[in-house]
Amino acid sequence: MTTSTVAEIESAIRALEDARYAAVIAGDIDAFTAHAHPDLAYTHSNGVTDTLESYQDKLRSGFYLYHHIDHPVDRILVAGDTVVVVGEMHADITAGGTRKTLANRAMAVWVRQDDRWLLLAYQPTVLPEPPR
Q1: What is the dihedral of CA 73, 75, 78, 82, to 10 degrees?
Q2: Distances from the Cα of 127 to the Cαs of 40, 103, 105, 106, 116, in angstroms?
Q3: 36 bridge partner residues
Q4: What is the pLDDT of residues 3-39, one digit of tens each?
Q5: Using the 8-state DSSP alphabet, how is residue 98 labeled?
Q6: Residue 41 forms beta bridges with which residues?
């Protein structure tokens, strides 16, 4: 196992977060899969949770089309071979044929396996509407 500093791990995870979001925007399912753990639990803001296989199927079929994603990171928590990314995910997507704008808090969990960081879980939470 490689010994890395917290700063090196944080830098690597930021790059991986950028790469995974770029992959779904580009529709590059293979690139996304390269960053995903085989036991991925990918939860959507509507509460539906996909496995890696079911998420790949939805991407392949065009069920999810990502037009633009901003994903500011607030904190990266490193605990051994597990990293939790806390931030937001704002996106312009088409889901099931319906164009949507998403505004979510988000948490991503990465684990180190065989000296590679892989996305194990993702969980967004819809941000409340601002008062009118």
Answers
A1: -50
A2: 24, 6, 6, 10, 32
A3: 119
A4: 689 999 999 999 999 999 999 999 999 999 999 999 9
A5: E
A6: 121
Tokens of 73: 């990171």
Give backbone dihedrals phi and psi of 63, rounded to 5 degrees, phi first: -60, -45
Give the residues of the chain that fall short of pLDDT 70: 1-3, 130-132
How many whole angstroms separate alpha carbon 26 and alpha carbon 34? 14
Measured CA to CA, the distance from residue 116 to residue 86 in angstroms comes to: 20
Give backbone dihedrals phi and psi of 80, rounded to 5 degrees, phi first. 65, -120
Residues 6+ apart with CB under 8 A from 125: 45, 104, 105, 106
pTM of the complete model: 0.92
**Long-range contacts made by residues 8-11, C-beta under 8 angstroms, separation at least 24?**
9/76, 9/78, 9/83, 10/76, 10/78
Those residues with Cβ within 8 angstroms of residue 74's Cβ, 6 or more apart along the chain or in another chain: 86, 87, 88
